[in-house]
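Recall the central idea of this unit: under ordinary conditions, the amino acid sequence of a chain determines the structure it adopts. In this exercise we apply that idea directly, starting from the sequence alone.
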Amino acid sequence: MKKIISFTLLALAGASFVNSQTMNNPNINRSVAPTEQLELTQEWDKVFPKSDKVDHKKVTMVNRYGITLAADMYTPKGASGKLPAIAVSGPFGAVKEQSSGLYAQQLAERGFLTIAFDPSFTGESGGEPRRVASPDINTEDFSAAVDFLSVQPNVDPERIGVLGVCGWGGIAIQAAINDPRIKATVASTMYDMTRVTANGYFDADDSKDKRNAARAAMAAQRTADYRNGTYERAGGVVDPLPDDAPQFVKDYHAYYKMPRGYHERSGNSTDGWNVTSALPFMNFKFFEYADELESAVLIVHGENAHSRYFGEDTFKKLRGNNKELLIVADASHCDLYDNLDKIPMNQIATFYSTWMPKK
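Accordingly, the structure predicted from this sequence is:
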């Protein structure tokens, strides 16, 4: 016991000296990487109007891989004390000025402190090269948001939830499986990005031969990218639309390519992800331990959404009486991006209040 105490006192006595002498040494093991100074747009450039019921400001945080994330923080006007908090991201290939920001602002109007963040390598967040996606790093992005929220003076760290839209709905559930600090999760109009990448839509390409052909094409693209010194982009939402485009592609076009949802920093609105970003999603499966998730989950899908099967199949893997599946009548996938007549925002807020109660 005496040795333990003496070592502890020595560590405490030397902490300030160590910090002052080693902060600039790249070989020193620090718990949190230094924050990158990001260039953040200060004017309101969202695709939705600013609410007069909430306060808004830009914030930054660092994830476990040392990437600085940019976020918009929304706080209910006049709020006091420690608030329940929610981190929001998505859709996959979107930015915080689009759907995730709308959800965050709407939930702030209902009493939550919220942040809508850009994932690593996208939007205003840091990370090089740009437009890279990763099932691991993007799951970590949600936990980094929880790190940030947990230490805010006006946040109750025991009442933190996450919300993911579209592809980030699946990532939000995956983050909750891994991070018990997340007390409640909402996945709205969700995709399972690992499943759709490996199997195609509706599992139409679920075969070894098709996956191996896709792997070979992306491996060849890696060689070409390295030779050229640039990353080939996959392209955002197709434009102009072909005559035979499926309805859900038309719906994406109506959001990402039209004034309703277009944003210059959004990959879906512009030139998309790097082609090789799909590689890790073909070699990774979400929800392997979904039956071990103890915290609350609400999966919301439109009745007419092409993606509905992702949510329904994921819901079947969950266990416990704190899991809910909500099907919104006469709603499509993209209706749940920004149609406030269809998004069940009050029910989502009630879900969080129920499973993140004030102690």
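The radius of gyration is 21 Å.
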